[in-house]
Design brief:
The protein has about 350 residues and is an alpha+beta fold. The chain has 2 domains: about 190 residues, Fructose-1,6-Bisphosphatase, Chain A, domain 1 (2-Layer Sandwich); about 120 residues, D-Maltodextrin-Binding Protein, domain 2 (3-Layer(aba) Sandwich), CATH 3.40.190. Helix content is about 30%, strand content about 25%. The strands form 3 sheets. It has an 8-stranded mixed beta sheet, with helices on both faces. About 45% of the residues are buried. The chain binds 2,5-anhydro-1,6-di-O-phosphono-D-mannitol and magnesium ion. 2,5-anhydro-1,6-di-O-phosphono-D-mannitol binds next to strand 5.
Length: about 350
């Protein structure tokens, strides 16, 4: 089979971008290339899951008390490996690690960036062949280059990201990343082992006809959220919920719609991680013309207090997030939940 030589690979695309900015150092391009390499290795392993001798859950729980899957650990190690061996990352924070890891050596101390990632999001879906993904956000460090990076480099609001992206391991594998200049999507061509530009300049449609929420928690949602979901139903919108944020957000970015992970009675601060899940997607969706809020603030404006902070998140098409805002109270939601234990069914 012949290959279309007009389609740019991820490397060619980042080099082309560099040519437009002669003063750029190429450090961010190298970093994205490194992440692309880790993504290919994770893709190869994810594709094998289900085969004999590929273990599922490990004996450990992560900092969020969730069961760690063997592939979570594999994905974490691959990302850490490429970033540590590369020249563009001073340190990392990962959903699977309690603390930051500072790559304290002469080469890495010189780099401008730190990276935060969820190595394998939706990993509880591995066993059932449902799409899963990797999510990452890249920040310019605040501490002086030439020295080891510090915690303050990581505890920055999402609006300080210089790039953010995700990889979806689905019916095909795609890497999508955003810088302030735009969002571009690359599909892995397994026959040449390269990510190829397939979705240039992605825009989130201003409106959409689906809402994405775990409706099983209906009785745990605040009244305002229930009213908004009812509003979506009255409009005849479809409900779509994979339960893998990467898959739900990929659809929302391509087709429009709104994704909600509200606070619940059991998780009154929300479930999704601000640094590893909410911020990267909020950055991507905003560059693509959409919007992302927590209910009281723009996601990317939240100043984090700790690495593993969680937040409610409402994200997607601008018009739909606008409609949701009409249901929210200016000072925040009322935090009035029903206790599911008291509900008579
Ligand atoms: P994970 O990082 O442990 O995989 O959890 C995050 C996932 C998201 O991908 C998804 O949107 C959400 O958890 C689903 O949660 P729930 O099953 O409560 O609806
Ligand atoms: Mg996750």
């Amino acid at each position: 089979m012949s290959h279309n030589q007009n389609i740019l690979t991820l490397d060619e695309f980042t080099i082309q971008q560099l040519r437009m900015f002669p003063k750029a150092t190429g450090e961010l391009s190298t970093l994205l290339r490194d992440i692309g390499l880790a993504a290919k290795r994770i893709y190869a392993e994810v594709n094998k899951s289900g085969l004999a001798n590929i273990p599922g859950a490990t004996d450990t729980k992560n900092v969020h008390s969730e069961q760690v899957q063997a592939l979570d650990v594999f994905a974490h190690n691959q990302l850490k490996g490429v970033l540590k061996n590369g020249l563009s990352c001073a340190g990392i924070a990962s959903e699977e690690m309690e603390n930051i890891e500072v790559f304290d050596d002469a080469a890495n101390n010189k780099s401008k960036y730190v990276v935060m990632f969820d190595p394998l999001d939706g990993s509880s879906n591995i066993d059932t062949n449902i799409s899963i993904g990797t999510i990452f956000g890249v920040y310019r460090r605040i501490s002086e280059t030439g020295t080891p990076c510090t915690m303050e480099d990581f505890l920055q609001p999402g609006n300080k990201q210089v790039a953010a992206g995700y990889i979806i391991y689905g019916s095909s594998t795609m890497l999508v990343y955003a810088t302030r200049r735009g969002v571009n999507g690359f599909t892995l061509d397994p026959s040449i082992g390269e990510f190829c530009l397939s979705h240039p300049n992605m825009q989130c449609p201003t409106n959409g006809d689906s809402y994405s929420v775990n409706q099983g928690y209906w009785y745990q949602y605040e009244r305002e959220i229930q009213l908004f979901i009812t509003h979506c139903q009255e409009k005849g919108m479809s409900q779509r919920y994979v339960g893998s944020m990467v898959a739900d957000m990929h659809r929302t970015l391509l087709k429009g719609g709104i994704f909600l992970y509200p606070a619940t009675y059991r998780k009154p601060s929300g479930k999704l991680r601000l640094m590893y899940e909410c911020n990267p997607f909020a950055f991507i969706i905003q560059v693509a013309g959409g919007e992302a809020i927590s209910g009281t603030a723009k996601i990317i404006d939240i100043v984090p207090e700790c690495l593993h902070q969680v937040s409610p998140v409402f994200i997607g098409s601008k018009m739909l997030v606008g409609e949701l805002k009409k249901y929210l109270h200016p000072g925040g939601l009322h935090k009035v939940y029903s206790n599911p234990a008291e509900i008579e069914i």
